[in-house]
Specification:
Structural class: alpha/beta
Largest sheet: 7 strands, parallel
Radius of gyration: 22 Å
Low-confidence stretches: 1-17
Strand order of the largest sheet: 4-3-2-5-6-7-8
Shape: globular
Number of helices: 14
């Protein structure tokens, strides 16, 4: 076990130089197909960070193929083409651009591509003639017939399938007809600060952040805090993040306003605060570093990956999370506490443990350190390049 006193230096090895394509003497070039900033969603954030990570490990030629969601201002210069769902001409033009690169990285979720269950991705790939690596951001446990048909056609076309957790890897093989030799596990990346400071322990600062909307389970944390009247002078809970754009378009700020009414009704206005300001990555890392513990009370039991979970652990913060698959996988060694869904009583017990047992918090922080190293974006990007080199050279990786 690595010791952690006041400040722990995270082992920051020099960035790994990517392997070279054997016929080119350089790393392969990559096209990245995804939503992309200024779109606000987890997939766009992932694609942006992965693109930067690929650059950092020596990939000199990168192009983003952006899935258009109507947001056109502030499009980044690395965007080489845009696909408009329902527009066959934009798909043909995107395929032409993709074929100028060595490898295509597809960030896949059913909801971002056009057609039933995102079937337009298959039409695009009919005109793509370079190797395809698909990162599976969603692997449904009980897919519909159409989801199954689209997903299995996609996996048949793909040269490599990337799962970000062992749960996703196993679920892919158990649920779908997939060649097991195609499936590899590469963890979700995270921005890791150079130093991990011990969290504040004199006052317990709890944090939930991310795009806000129904299903985030924040109401259960509020109910749990109401069960801890003796800790109200020592515990603060911040809910940081804007309302998810799709939720806001349909329902405005109804969910956030319902949470605020709940706080007032339970007499927790001095304990719970809401921060809907936009934050840069640096500002977000600072916010997480100021917390004692991150709370992820999600309602869904089917979440196989969570970027917020990985980011929290990579900043050296223990996590209280409901028992979604990624939380069970990453927190099982001691970096946090897993609680049942929609269970404010058990959640209150976990918060009390964090607020009253400093040695326990310090031990959880120690367990975050190896997780941070494994999930550093440079490490993750280098593994994608490894796959890209092998598939570009041989047409297969096994």
């Amino acid at each position: 076990m690595e010791s952690l006193t006041t400040t722990q230096q995270v082992n920051e090895n020099s960035l790994r130089i990517s392997p070279l394509h054997p016929s080119m003497g350089r790393p392969p070039s990559f096209a990245v197909l995804s939503t992309y900033p200024p779109t606000q969603c987890g997939l766009a954030t992932f694609a942006s960070a992965l693109t930067k990570g690929l650059r950092d490990v020596g990939v000199s030629r990168l192009g983003v193929i952006r899935v258009d969601d109507g947001v056109t201002h502030g499009v980044a210069p690395e965007v080489a083409a845009t696909i408009t769902n329902g527009d066959a001409q934009s798909r043909l033009e995107a395929a032409r651009v993709i074929n100028s690169f060595d490898v295509l990285l597809v960030q896949h979720e059913f909801g971002i591509f056009g057609g039933p269950c995102g079937s337009e991705i298959l039409e695009l790939l009919e005109d793509v003639h370079v190797p395809v690596i698909v990162t599976m951001h969603t692997v449904p446990l009980e897919p519909s017939l159409l989801q199954r048909a689209v997903f299995e056609a996609l996996t048949e076309r793909a040269d490599v399938l990337v799962a970000m957790t062992e749960v996703a890897h196993d679920r892919c093989l158990m649920t779908f007809q997939v060649d097991p030799a195609k499936v590899f596990t590469v963890p979700h990346g995270a921005t890791v600060p150079r130093h991990v400071n011990m969290p504040p322990l004199h006052t317990t600062s709890l944090l939930t952040w991310g795009l806000i909307g129904p299903g985030k389970g924040i109401e259960w944390v509020i109910d749990a805090l109401a069960m801890l009247p003796d800790l109200r002078d020592n515990v603060r809970y911040t809910v940081a993040g804007q309302t998810h754009p799709k939720v806001k378009a349909q329902n405005g700020e109804a969910y956030r306003e319902s949470l605020m009414r709940r706080v007032d009704a339970l007499g927790l206005s001095s304990v719970v605060s809401f921060d809907d300001s936009y934050r840069s990555l640096e500002s977000l890392i600072d916010l997480v570093a100021e917390s004692t513990c991150v709370v992820l009370p999600y309602d869904s039991g089917d979440q196989i990956t969570s970027g917020v979970l990985v980011d929290a652990l990579s900043v050296g913060r223990p996590v209280i999370a409901t028992e979604f698959p990624h939380a069970r996988e990453l927190l099982s060694d001691g970096a946090g506490i897993v609680v049942p869904h929609r269970d404010p009583v058990t959640l209150a017990q976990a918060i009390r443990r964090v607020a009253t047992d400093k040695a326990f918090v310090e031990k959880m922080v120690e367990f975050t350190l190896p997780i941070a190293r494994e999930h550093r974006w440079s490490s993750v990007a280098a593994r994608y390049v490894d796959l890209g080199v092998r598939v570009a050279a041989n047409g297969r990786v096994w």
